[in-house]
């Protein structure tokens, strides 16, 4: 596991209507290796509900980053992390079709637009 010198992010409120497409906002540009579509990424992340701003998941709260092949993550991450460089922090706003699917899809977050702040710590 890598340790990020950063602290848990605050999610900036997104001005405007709930997006229907993926929104990618670079908060801080990284200078390390670039994530590719087939990469395994080591990330710290915070996830909040777009509408309520309520946190639903955070690696920060567990005190350790996570390692995942991008291909096994939600579409919003598969589309929103490639091109990001190690050391960067990026905000993604993923509408339901890029997150956990439409309402009634069986996941507790189905039908929700989700906002993530992701710190890219490593790429394999």
Describe this protein's structure.
Keywords: Isomerase, Rotamase. This is Peptidyl-prolyl cis-trans isomerase. It catalyses: [protein]-peptidylproline (omega=180) = [protein]-peptidylproline (omega=0). Its EC number is 5.2.1.8. A hairpin with a 5-residue loop joins strand 2 and strand 3 (about 55-60). The chain has helices at about 60, 75-80; strands at about 25-30, 40-50, 55-60, 65-70, 90-95, 115-124. Strands 1, 2, 3, 4, 5 and 6 form a six-stranded antiparallel β-sheet that branches. By secondary structure, the chain is mainly beta. The protein has two helices and six strands.
Structural descriptors:
6 strands, 6-stranded antiparallel beta sheet, Chitinase A, domain 3, 124 residues, 2 helices, mainly beta
Under CATH, the topology can be stated as Chitinase A, domain 3
Write down the overall geometry. Answer: globular
Note the total helix count. Answer: 2
Major sheet description:
6 strands, antiparallel
Q: Strand-residue fraction? A: 25-35%
Count of the domains: 1
CATH class category: Alpha Beta
List SSEs in N-to-C order. Answer: EEEHEHEE
């Amino acid at each position: 596991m890598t340790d990020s010198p950063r602290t848990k992010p605050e999610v900036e409120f997104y001005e405007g209507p709930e997006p229907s497409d993926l929104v990618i906002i670079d908060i801080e540009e990284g200078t390390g290796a670039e994530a590719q579509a087939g990469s395994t990424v080591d990330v710290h992340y915070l996830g909040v509900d777009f509408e309520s701003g309520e946190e639903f998941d955070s690696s920060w709260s567990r005190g350790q980053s996570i390692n995942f092949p991008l291909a096994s993550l939600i579409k919003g991450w598969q589309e929103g992390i490639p091109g990001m460089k190690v050391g960067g922090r990026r905000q993604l706003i993923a509408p339901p079709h890029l997150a956990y699917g439409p309402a009634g899809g069986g996941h507790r977050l189905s039908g929700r637009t989700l906002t993530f702040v992701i710190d890219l710590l490593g790429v394999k």
